[in-house]
Amino acid sequence: MDELNISSQTFQQLVEQTTKWLTKAIDDLETGPTTYVESTHDCPEGYKAARQLAQRLREDTAPEHGQGLAETMDLVCNVAPHAGLNHASGGFCAFITGGGLLHTAVADLVSAAMNRFTGVFLGSPGLVQLETNVIAWMSQIIGYNPQKAFGCFTSGGSMANFIGILVARRKHLSEEQLMQGVVMATSETHSCISKGLMMAGLPQTAICKVPCDDDWRMDPKELEKKIEMYTQAGRKPFLVVSTAGTTNSGTVDNVRDLATVCQRHNVWLHVDGVYGAAFKLTKRGQSVLDGLEEADSVAVDLHKSFFLPHGTGMLLVKERHHLRKAFTIDCDSPYYPDFDSSDVNFYELSPELTRSFRGMRIWLPLKICGLDKWRAALDARLDWTEFFVKELYHMKPLGIEVTTKPSLTLATFRYAPEKSTSAEQLRDYNLQLLRLINKRGNIFLSPTTLQDGRFVIRICILHLRLTKARLDSGLQDIKDGAIAVSQQAGSAATREVPQESSNLLEPVAKRPMPSDGHSDLSPPPSPNPPFGHIKSAPIDHV
Predict the structure, then answer these.
(1) In this predicted structure, what is the pLDDT of residue 79?
(2) SS3 state at 460
(3) Residue 270 phi, psi (nearest 5)
(4) Which residue, 336, 363, 450, 463, has fewest beta-carbon neighbours within 10 Å?
(5) Which long-range contacts (CB under 8 A, 24 or more apart) does 119-125 make?
(6) pTM for this model (two decimals)
(7) Which residues lie closer than 8 Å to 251 by C-beta, 6 or more apart?
(8) 201 Cα distance to chain centroid
(9) Would you call 172 exposed, middle or buried from its count of C-beta atoms within 10 A (0-12, 13-18, 19+)?
């Protein structure tokens, strides 16, 4: 037997030994560092350590002879991860990340070991049907008619949005009209849309920024004005990109009103629902995401609010025939068999021919756990977010200001003492506060700048491994940090705390909090130390 073609017994031993290494790495996520840097901004020491690790791991030539599994897994599990950001930690609230459902690791193993071809129906009709089932289930969650809607799996939200742009372009623009095309977006639209338009052959001048309302949602009245203006000028508005949960402020557009405008002017409405679409599973999410089913296409990122590991997104299209029109071509390939168009051949419905069996990544955990586990997990995070923001409002005497109200589970806040100060000084105060919070190691947050210019701290309460204990500790860290910054600044926040707010300095854990929300999707919580094991440079100036 070829040495590369191992036996089933050797494969079993390989999996068992690998699982032992991975089990320890997974356990370390509960007690190990939330991350290895103090901030995503202005952290030279963190970047220095990251580059040193990268240099240490650099190999300029491929190994001529193999080494043992133990040495290899030690490198992967114990050396390589120990720098930079730790997206898999339950305290990672900086970006919108789901954490990594372990059921999907099993699904990847099954899919890779079976290695069946799912680009065409005949390649693996059973597995193609399983993936087709998942697309129908996701269509139902969005509110589409699963008999008419369809979709395709992608590597993530950026590719899902890109494919949505391609489908809209193929429907509404001829090749001759390409340079006349106009795409409507806002200042809150994700940068992947600009990249997707570039890859789709459209110039950056094709983007029109529609004004937002006071909540940074695309204004339907302003949208209609822009469409009419460009149409009268001889241009071709063909696509509106709405967002269901922006990455910067968490804003959810009024999709129903936008859909009414788009239908009136025969313009494709695409919703970037990469973060927010999954919340359609919950009653509160259905209210916030009202009208999502009216969109022509929706991008969903399963490694965000469906908690899967990185590498799983999907595009859903309300009318299946638009996908086929976008990706079916006359192909003079005599080695192809005669495919029946009534069967599901994914190569006709997406850009890929050879493709991984991504559907298994969500099909397997859905079959094992059921949708009710996701619904419970998302509801818990909505509860936690509401609680967290209320606690932030209680910190107003300490100088904490809530800067955006969450539509779902993303909120922003800042330290803003009553005593007037410059924008630059406020930025410095909030960077100090951010480093103090992150240095504790209970939660890891990131900064951002809102569209009105305010520099703020951002939290997304979504992670699969996030626990009540971490949130409790994180709130205490914000309090302690605000006190430390105000003492250093000598600001108005050092004034005596009003009597009615005297309990602000008591531990947050004494206050009631929603239930932990754990289900079969996540492990039970483990106690966190009051200070994490974060490896970072000390903060000299606070």
Answers:
(1) 85
(2) strand
(3) -110, 135
(4) 336
(5) 119/345, 119/346, 119/347, 119/352, 119/353, 119/354, 119/355, 120/339, 120/345, 120/346, 120/347, 121/339, 121/340, 121/343, 121/344, 121/345, 122/337, 122/339, 122/343, 124/357, 125/343
(6) 0.88
(7) 188, 215, 216, 217, 243, 245, 404, 407
(8) 26
(9) middle
Q: Which two tokens stand for residue 275?
A: 């973060």
Q: Is 447:455 a contact under the CB 8 Å cutoff?
A: yes
**Per-residue tokens: 248:** 């910067």
Give the list of residues 6+ apart from residue 409 with CB closer than 8 angstroms, or none: 250, 381, 382, 384, 385, 460, 461, 462
The one-letter code for the residue type at 68 is G
- CB 462, CB 305: distance < 8 Å: yes
343 burial level (CB within 10 Å; 0-12, 13-18, 19+):
middle
Query: Helix, strand, coil % (nearest 5) of the chain?
Result: 45, 10, 40
Cα radius of gyration (the chain): 25
The Cα 367–Cα 360 span in angstroms is 10
Read off the pLDDT band of 44 (50, 70, 90): confident
Longest CA–CA span in the chain (Å) reads 83
Residue whose pair of structure tokens reads 């069996």 in the numeric block: 357
Position 331 confidence tier, pLDDT thresholds 50, 70, 90: low
Q: Determine the distance from the C-alpha atom of residue 23 to the mean position of all C-alpha atoms in its chain, rounded to a whole number.
A: 25
Asked if residue 492 lies in contact with residue 418, where contact means CB atoms within 8 angstroms, the answer is: yes
Section 315-330 average pLDDT: 90
Q: Check residue 453 and give left, alpha or beta (phi > 0: left; psi -120 to 50: alpha).
A: left
E strands along 70-178, which residues? 150-154
Q: Which two tokens stand for residue 338?
A: 């005669």
Hey, what amino acid is at 327? F
Q: What is the pLDDT of residues 12-40, one digit of tens each?
A: 998 998 898 888 888 888 777 787 876 67
Is pLDDT above 90 for 396? yes
CB-based burial of residue 340 (10 Å sphere; 0-12 exposed, 13-18 middle, 19+ buried)? exposed
Calculate the alpha carbon distances from 404 to 61, 141, 471, 483 in Å: 50, 27, 19, 22
User: CB–CB of 361/384 below 8 Å?
Assistant: no
Q: How far apart are the C-alpha atoms of 506 and 437, rounded to whole Å?
A: 17
The answer to whether the beta carbons of residues 73 and 439 sit under 8 Å apart is no
Percent of the chain whose pLDDT exceeds 90: 62
CA distance 27 to 156: 27
Q: Is the pLDDT of residue 524 over 70?
A: no
Task: Supply the mean pLDDT for the chain.
Answer: 87
DSSP H or E segment with residue 459: strand 455-460
